[in-house]
Amino acid sequence: MLASLNLPAEAGEHLAARAALLDGTYREVAARMPANSQIVFDDGRLHFAALEPEPEPASLRQPRGGGGDAAPVDLPEALLEVFSWTGADQAFTSVTGGEARLKDLHVTIAALLVAHSCNVGYTPVIGAADALKYGRLSHVDQTYLRPATWRAANAKLIHCQASIPLAQVWGSSTPSCCSTRGTWMPR
């Protein structure tokens, strides 16, 4: 292990080199402090002046101001589109194990995924449609969204991602948000 890390067998030699580097760095920083107008010592305490913000580039101001070419993304619609490509919504099955599917279940699941991922609760996703009523949201949340179905949906998404040529160029089909168990769940 030491050889693969290019470390000496004796820790003292390595620690002495690290201590010398740290001491040199401290001395270099301390030598520059008197000329730095952003640093002030007051009653033996070190204070840093507040930094002024960088001006915001025009490229950021235009989309925010509206009227730009970029259309706002409707997150539930984007999820429904991903569901149509991947079938990931089919992984959310009832805890009872029954095959009966609720009408427009994919709409309810998309709304719940938005509610959970944005941490906003049900209120912003409640709507007039039956699939978006409070009772339906609560029922589906309690009986369809659980660790096993999150894992199954993630597996479908990862499988579909792996078939995308650009994702293949980037490398592993394991998303960076995955834990060591290979799943990501917002609960």
TrEMBL record:
GO molecular function: transposase activity
Entry-linked Pfam families: DDE_Tnp_Tn3
Domain Tn3 transposase DDE: 78-179
GO terms under biological process: DNA transposition
Protein name: Tn3 transposase DDE domain-containing protein
